[in-house]
Prior knowledge:
By secondary structure, the protein is an alpha/beta fold. The chain is built from 11 helices and 14 strands. Helices cover about 40% and strands about 20% of the residues.
Amino acid sequence: MQQITLIPGDGIGPEVTQSARDVVTAAGANVSWDTVSAGMQTGKQQGTPLPASVFESIAVTRLALKGPVQTPFGDDYPVCVERGTGPRIYPSVTIALRKELKLFVNVRPARNYPSVKSRFDNVDLLIFRENSEDLYAGRERMVDADTAEAIKIITRQGSERVARFAFDYMRKVGRRKLSVIHKSNVMKLTDGMFLRTAQEVARDYPEFEVNQRVVDALCMELVIRPEEFDCLLLPNLYGDIVSDLAAGLVGGLGVAPGANIGSDCAMFEAVHGSAPDIGGKDIANPMAMILSAVMLLRYIGEAQAADRVEQALTAVLRDKKHVTRDLGGSAGTREMTAAIIRNLSGSSPTNS
């Protein structure tokens, strides 16, 4: 049995993670859960938003399903992690987990689902975002009272690692085309390094079609003809922005799952926020968290259970009778979850 660390998070996090847990259990996946707390509420209760118990659990499971955590804007909420050689400070719980667990790639699918309102049809994107470098490396300083500086870091090692991951992942799931995204017309050394390294790695994967796009041109093309793209490979900052743009193409962050993966550890999470204003009101859409759990199931080899969950969710979306308000219905979180579970009960592993 595969044990999974469950981090409910803040705001709507406990509700949507409970939905995902219930659906995974109903699908018959051979998993168990170790629930630990992190986030703003945990910080108020325990004095730190990221207790050592989180890392202790993941050290055993090597796997986590994480709900959204609340992070205020500004500099008043640093996350201090006491591990190894000493304390390290991060701007958020999510970034701290990615850095400390060495989760070097963020994988974000963006595809159309039945009855989910969007401006486009036939969108089916898979986005690979380098997760450890670029401006998000956190090398910032105040030059003087009126000037702040950030250092952009791109390495050959980091670029090669994420490029190889992308091609191997594409091979596994049957994708065929990769667009490498950059701004090397201006950032000639950093983005140039990322582009050149990806193109060099591509020579080891001759079965794939590989092209490149400048990031601003890509954004224009995505809002005109997104159906022409298959997989995207981006540095950290561009990947953060473009993956949210891609979610907007297919209905918003409420339908956007995500995974952060390293060499021996993975964390799956919905990419929307904690929405504290509606937390505890039973109105949050659990779809993104359930789809993140689907990605987790595929990662651990529970493909049959993953297929069953995705089919049951799709059936509920098509029916429209038991979906949340943002999806055009009037159901609550628990009602939508129950509808998905009823559809699971009506199917069997043999016909998935």
